[in-house]
Amino acid sequence: MSIQLQQTAPSSQSKATTDPTLKVEGLASHYGPVQAIVDISLEVYPGELVTIVGANGAGKTTLLHTLSGVQRASTGSVMFEGEDITNRPAHRITAGGICHSPEGRQVFAPLSIEDNLQLGAFARKDDKTVIEAEIENIYSLFPVLKEKRLQAAGNLSGGQQQMLAIGRAMMGKPRLLLLDEPSMGLSPLLVGEIFDVIQDLNNQGVTILLVEQNARAALKIADRGYVLESGRVAFSASAEALLNDESVQKAYLGH
Amino acid sequence: MFDQIIQFLATGLSIGSTYALVGLGFAIIYNASGVVNFAQGEFVMLGAMSVVGLLGAGVPYPLALLVAIAIVTLVGFSLNKFAIEPARGASVVATIIITIGASILLRGAALLIWGKDIFSMPAFTGDEPIQIGAATLVPQNLWIMGITVILVLGVRYFFDKTLIGKAILACSCNKTAAGLVGINVKLMLLTSYGLSAAIGAVAGLLIAPIAFTSFDAGTMLGLKGFAAAILGGMGSSMGAVAGGLVLGVLESLGAGLISSGYKDAIAFVIILAVLFFKPSGLFGFKSVDRV
Amino acid sequence: MNRLKGFYVYAAVVALLPILFPDNYFVTVVGATILLNVILAVGLNLFIGYAGQISLGHAAFFGIGAYSSAVLTTRFELNAWLAMLVGLGLVYVIANLVARPILKLKGHYLAMATLGFGIIVNIILVQESSWSGGPDGLGDIPTLSLFGFDIDTDLRWYGMIAFFSLAAILVSLNIIDSRAGRELRAVHGSEFAAQMMGVDTVRTRTNVFVLSAMFASLAGSLFAHQQAFVSPESFGFGFSIEIVTMVVLGGMASTYGAVFGAIVLTLLPETLVVFEDYEMLIFGGILMGGMIFMPQGLFVFLTQKIRTVLNHRSGPSPKPQDAQKTLECDS
Amino acid sequence: MTILQAVNLDKHFGGVAAVTDLSFSVTEGEIYSVIGPNGAGKTTLFNMLCGYYVPSGGSITFAGKDLAGMETHQIAAQGISRTFQNLQVFYNMTVLENVMVGCHMRTRTGLIKAALRLPSVIREERQVREWSLEALTLCGLEHLADREAGSLPYGELKRLEIARALASDPKFLAMDEPAAGLNDTETVEMRQLIQRLKERGITILLVEHNMGLVMQISDRVLVLGFGCLLAEGTPQEVQNNPAVIKAYLGEDV
Amino acid sequence: AGDTIKVGTFLSVTGPASFLGDPELKTLQMYIEDINAKGGIDGKQVELVHYDTGGNAKKAVNFAKRLIKRDKVDVIVGGSTSGSTLASMPEIEKSGVPFISLAGSVKIVDPVSPWTFKTPHTDRMAASKVYLDMQARGITKVALISGDGGFGKSGRAQSLALAPDFGITIVADESYGRKDTDMTAQVTNIRSSDAQAILNFGFGSGPAIVTKNIRQLGIELPLYQSHGVASKKFIDLAGDAAEGVRLPAAALLVADKLDDSDQQKAVLVAYKNAYEAKYGPVSTFGGHAYDGLYIALEAIDRANSTDKTAVRDQIEATKGFVGTSGIFTMSKDDHLGLGLDAFRMLEIRNGDWALVE
Ligand SMILES: Nc1ncnc2c1ncn2[C@@H]1O[C@H](COP(=O)(O)OP(=O)(O)OP(=O)(O)O)[C@@H](O)[C@H]1O
Ligand SMILES: Nc1ncnc2c1ncn2[C@@H]1O[C@H](COP(=O)(O)OP(=O)(O)OP(=O)(O)O)[C@@H](O)[C@H]1O
Ligand SMILES: [Mg+2]
Ligand SMILES: [Mg+2]
Fold first, then answer.
1. C101 and C158 assigned to the same domain
2. Out of D76, D97, D116, whose CB is closest to C196?
3. Cα separations (Å) of C19 from C155, C156, C158, C159, C270?
4. Any idea which of B281-290, C39-48, C52-61, E73-82 has the lowest mean pLDDT?
5. Nearest ligand, CA of residue A57?
6. D220 contacts D237 by C-beta, under 8 angstroms
7. Separation CA C296–CA C247 (nearest Å)
8. Do the chains contact at B179 and A102, CB–CB below 8 Å?
9. Is D7 in CB contact (< 8 Å) with chain C?
10. Structural domains in chain B plus CATH codes
11. What's a single GO BP term from this record (chain B) (predicted)?
């Protein structure tokens, strides 16, 4: 992509002066000899909603996996709230306040839906009643989950599992939420709802890094966006600028 | 005839309880990692041998029992820490081979420490036979059955009702996702190896007063425990118990009523028949995979 | 295209060794045992490594083959080659009969069922002493002869077993590299998707089970004539496990891996005997160490190492994480 | 001409009714889409069609043949192929080999022939390779032929499944959410691919949540809600059906 | 072989029959060291080459080959179990190496094979000895129980075959596995038969469990064990339940209690003292190795060479050799050379062996 968009400062004024919640510098990761992401640097500021767009194989999933400790970083660093969390084990990163709703849903298939949600709060020290209230909250977002709460998660339909995966990540009460294609497999009605939920969460102060193929919808609610190509950050800009950029439209928005 | 059958049943339940305990050990590690731990029988052997060794060193009996359990638990931890955990990226089958290696190694170690002798161990509360209806049992039989019931209920509670128990289950079904919800997968595995080693040790010191012990006493018990766990449905604690008891009773009835030479064959034929009609065992969950 | 390059090298080594060392115990005696185990491991590898199934009762088929030859040649004075064929036929029938019910099962349940089958066969061999000789075994099995030539020295036996062993490898390589081989691996990858592509997976699994059983039966017949004596303990649970270990240790889903595993696992105890009481400890330790540091198997590990050295790939590559691609749990 | 006909189909799991009394028919050569909310029973319908689930009631007829009692591979032999919502890729093979498995029904070599590696086997191998590369090319994956399937990103795996299904030269292709995980530009490519398949005479049964795609290419659309038929008709008709809008599309579409 | 005499051995030093192989190996090592210290045989040192079969017949065959081909031993003294002996016999017979087996089965020397000898009493002799004792007590109905290993099976077969000769009927015939943990079911069946005595053929932990189970079920019938339990270990394991158990065994177990006039006494006491000084309690099994080793070495000594045929012939010419198992006199048709009198009938009293006379 050739056009040069100016490197944008964080969208809202106040954020410019604060330290970023997430600061990634020179991050790279390999699968064996294959390099999947190369020299990625990005920041997410407190309260921001940042989205990442890119084609199949651009390295979006790998990036999120590297952030949440599933995948090892070969070089570079990840700072979360000023702390270096590079290559920490996943469970400690989660306990530190980052939750990740992974690609492909990855629900605990033989466990019940309720167990899945409870495990979502595994890293938290909160009281049982608090957690139960939050589970109810998830159920009110996705009533179908409540209906099937005692069934094995593996028997859910694809879209229902997606709801569960998002719900499970929300149960972790994260300060930074990583979402990998949350709208995948959801009905149009629910896609709209999911984006509303994401926006709500963001408004409640949760910082969000969102990977979406539904780039248009994602950019509509995002503050800023990064475009990934072949494992590199091709450029980044405010969401609005990206939405209106011709080459982005051509490559990702179907025009 | 009727009296005889009562005796067969009583004996079968007592033998079956030990199989159940060994099977329970299998279930725990299976629940955490999907791996069948072929060194489970060696935990049983080590439990009994440790008691014998400790008694020989003059440690008082009840203390020796506790210390033996602690020792074997430690062995379980070590097996996980030094053999299972470093083998990152090993498939389930490769991990099973590691446990087979571990079973040989532990047997070899026991051979070096205690030699090839068969040892006896005193019963918990004497050898005086007890008459219960038409059946005769020794007190140790009752200890076996009693402790089995307690442990099984405990394990069942652990997996069904506690969050840690569920977290262990989550590890075996999806390590990545388990890590992402904040479960320390390594710690869970360590816990499960320790726990099943401890249960194995308990099985060992329960049965040794009846069946003696030696460095190679674990192999057969391990095999029977595996059969029990499978018959009941791998991973289910109630299943392990049901499987163990059924196996014990089948053996006893087979030996008593049909042919003692073929009693193991009879038991296995029936296990095969059960699996034919219930491919996931008596209490096993059907696997949930959707396409 | 040099599909069989590795095979030619291996065959050359197998042929050259006895020429260079015609009277060496480690070549003619241990070597023959290795080659025999290669037949078993390569056969089982088709079932375990490629088709992704598990069998802990494979020694039973080895035993049925051996006992068929032993009983038919001693009690009925049947021609040894004929007996071998009858053994193969018998195993074909038995394997087909047990396949249907047993192969319904998956994973550990399949492991248990095959284990049970193996134990039942062993118990029959022990108990039916009127024809099997019971635990004391059956002796005085005549040796094989070929065109009037008695196979009666270690060297000749080496040659005979080497022939069958190489044939087994060739057959295995051919199968893997064909439609039938892809069928096997597809069953492993996703049974349902394979069915959707028109693969009759039940038949595929049955066929490969029967085929690997027949490999074992062949090895059993050779074994019986070579040793001139059979007893049930050679065909027990322990040996079943040993064959599986050969396959996994060498490297699953690789014919050469199975060969490699057979070599290592036969040689190891033979060299460890000098350690006497420490033998078990060391053997167990090596087995564990091998799998811990080379979970993909010796052969795969070594070829990868060689390749990286040859390619001069610099820079450390981090270990790939076992990112789970499938949603299903191991059942 | 009707190629697929479902009559009074039922499927329940224990107490849960996934599909209830569903009847519809697909005409040869058309693109027939099934849409509906999550959990409406679309995938379940596919699974019954392919013999993964046995219907609790009703029947499915394909090209005049009742599929009841047929096993999956026999159903496949009728000319039906499909892709999966929960990916069913052979991760232990390369991309090309995955597709080569797809050619299974067009070839014959069995164990014995393979073991002996007769000349016919070698010829057949060459042919299979050709077919497979062709299918890969059609799906834009030819450059990945020798990659391990496990190393592909999600979006490409979805296309790999299509290539594999095509390699079996199906008369009828059922696709479960082919555009999930594709961005809008990639979705356009997918649309073009599906249209090409239609031009080749393949009847297509499509499940998809991407309404842009469905409405543009479908000849007819079936809407499921809670396992029941909610509506059926042209995209136009369905799109304007208030019940469909309420249950599925949402007001703002 | 040049200036050493090579004695080969393959024994079950580990594995289920380690209680046989272990004392056997120790005995061989101890005595060969002793012989060498005293200047060897005819000025030649004796070298022991040993392999552990772990009780595995397949390994036994390969090790026999290894001894013959690679180590080129002059004579083989070994084979702890009947299984490993029978398995390696074809190879040994083919190669023509004198072989003295330490295993029990009568099949090893009946029919006689040219190169194979053995020193332990046979199971047939054990059964006969037991039946004689039963006859003397007027017992005619016997319940048989046996392990399903080679030893137990073979003993069972001999017991069944010999019973009619002694006017005995077998009224129950049970068996148990080597690693079974409880035999109550089998014993229950015996209890409900009308047996007047019980005979058990087996070794390892099985016989001890059988003994305990019998007493637990309150069965007071006379219990006979085989020579398979002829070690102190059995008394340890079975504890009180072992009281009154009778078994046929070599005189070694009661060496000190023998009459001074007993021809074997000197040899027995010497062996016992030597072994116990070094390793702990003796068992009769180590004694078999002692007998085998000395029969072989004396034959070599007499042959004045290690020529295989000459040694074989000299072993056959063994006459009046006083061993631990009895007094051996072999011949072309008798490759064991022991009579029934080599067995003593013992009874366990107060946790110790006592002679029944
Ligand atoms: N397990 C793996 N082994 C080897 N290479 C891999 C593996 N997973 C991903 N890759 C490679 O890494 C690169 C990035 O893949 P990644 O899954 O991160 O892409 P993505 O942007 O998430 O794509 P999609 O939109 O399809 O989900 C791709 O080239 C892919 O082939
Ligand atoms: N094996 C099963 N056991 C129990 N319930 C099941 C099973 N399979 C499907 N279901 C239930 O049947 C209903 C239909 O599921 P199906 O997967 O067909 O939905 P779908 O229409 O494909 O949804 P999506 O758009 O989310 O993929 C769901 O409620 C699901 O929970
Ligand atoms: Mg992705
Ligand atoms: Mg679906």
1. yes
2. D76
3. 10, 12, 11, 11, 22
4. B281-290
5. 1
6. no
7. 11
8. no
9. no
10. 1-119+132-277 (1.10.3470)
11. amino acid transport
Which atom of ligand 2 is the closest one to the Cα of D42?
21
Are B290 and D88 inside 8 Å of each other by CB? Answer: no
Q: Provide the number of structural domains found in chain C.
A: 2
**Any A CB within 8 A of B170 CB:** yes
Across chain C, what does the average pLDDT equal? 89
How far apart, in whole angstroms, are the C-alpha atoms of residue B161 and residue B159?
A: 6
Contact E57 C33 (CB under 8 A): no
For E94-115, write each residue's pLDDT tens digit: 999 999 999 988 889 989 999 9
Residue C229 located in a structural domain: yes
Do C179 and C40 share a domain, yes or no? yes
Q: Are residues C57 and C111 in the same domain?
A: yes
Number of the ligand 2 atom closest to the C-alpha atom of A144: 29
* Global model pTM greater than 0.90: yes
Taken in order of first residue, the domains within chain D and their CATH numbers are: 27-79+170-253 (3.40.50.300), 90-167 (no CATH)
Cα angle E74, E80, E85; round to 5: 65
Residues of D in contact with A158 (CB under 8 A): 38, 43, 85-86, 177
Interface membership of D81 toward B (CB under 8 Å): no
In a domain, C135, yes or no: yes
pLDDT for B105-141, tens place per residue?
999 999 999 988 899 999 999 888 998 888 899 999 9
Query: For residue A159, which of A180, A192, A186 has the smallest C-alpha distance?
Result: A186
- Which residues 145-164 on chain B approach chain A with CB closer than 8 angstroms? 163
A71 CB neighbours in chain C (<8 A) are 321, 323
- The pLDDT of residue E310 is above 60: yes
Q: In terms of residue numbers, what domain contains C314?
A: 297-331
Residues of chain A contacting residue D38, judged by C-beta atoms under 8 Å apart? 144, 157-160, 162-163, 185-187, 190
Contact yes or no for E188 and B207 at CB 8 A: no
Q: Does D43 touch chain B (CB under 8 A)?
A: yes
Q: Which amino acid is at B83?
A: A
The reply to whether C265 and C301 lie within a common domain is no
Of residues E306, E296, E319, E285, the one with CA closest to residue E116: E296
Contact D37 A185 (CB under 8 A): no
In a 3-state reduction of DSSP, which class is residue C6? helix
Return the SS3 of B217. coil
Residue owning the nearest CA to atom 24 of ligand 2:
D38
Name which residue sits closest to atom 16 of ligand 2, judged by CA.
Answer: D41
Q: State whether the beta carbon of A20 lies less than 6 angstroms from ligand 1.
A: no
Cβ contacts of E21 within 8 Å, gap of 6 or more = E11, E12, E13, E14, E15, E52, E53, E55, E80
Point out the residue among B169, B184, B289 whose CB comes nearest to the CB of A111: B169
The verdict on C267 and C308 lying in the same domain is: no
Task: Let me know if residue C198 belongs to a domain.
Answer: yes
Q: Which of C29, C144, C137, C136 is nearest to E68 (CA)?
A: C29
Letter string b/e over residues B72-88, b meaning 16 or more CB atoms within 10 A of that residue's CB? bbebbeebbeebbeebe
Superfamily of A22-104+172-252 according to CATH: P-loop containing nucleotide triphosphate hydrolases (3.40.50.300)
Encode pLDDT of E120-176 as tens digits: 999 999 999 999 999 999 999 999 999 988 889 999 999 999 999 999 999 999 999
